[in-house]
Amino acid sequence: MGYTSDRTPPMGKPLMLREDDDRRIERLKTRLGAPSKVAVVRSALDLLEKQAERAERVVRWRRAARVAAASSAEVLRDFQPHSRLPAR
Predict the structure, then answer these.
(1) Which of 48, 46, 41 is nearest to 26 (CA)?
(2) Which tens digit of pLDDT belongs to each residue from 27-47?
(3) Helix intervals (H) in 1-88
(4) For the whole model, what pTM was predicted?
(5) Which tens digits make up the pLDDT trace of 46-75?
(6) Which residues contact residue 40 at a Cβ distance below 8 angstroms, ignoring those fewer than 6 apart?
């Protein structure tokens, strides 16, 4: 990372926003009591990352449940003839 001429670290990358998006961020900043617009954007990014991670976990869980269900049904069929309980 380079430094500016007065030995301070440079600012981050500029983000071009439409006027209505800028107003929305300002309103959220006020409602949330956030110290800056950047804090609002970071909060939104954190929430989006958590939502995406949860969606990925749900996909993995569903896949695992499908695999386990097939195996479980097979084992159940294997033990069915040996069961002392009457068949339904």
Answers:
(1) 41
(2) 999 999 999 999 999 999 999
(3) 19-32, 37-79
(4) 0.62
(5) 999 999 999 999 999 999 998 888 788 777
(6) 25, 28, 29, 32, 34
Domain spans in the chain, listed from the N-terminal domain onward: 19-81
| Burial class for 40, CB neighbours closer than 10 Å (0-12, 13-18, 19+) | buried
CB count, 10 Å around CB of 37?
Answer: 15
What CA–CA distances, in Å, run from 22 to 4, 28, 42, 59, 70? 27, 10, 15, 34, 51
Helix axes 37-79, 19-32, angle to 10 degrees: 80
> Tokens in use for 69?
């269900």
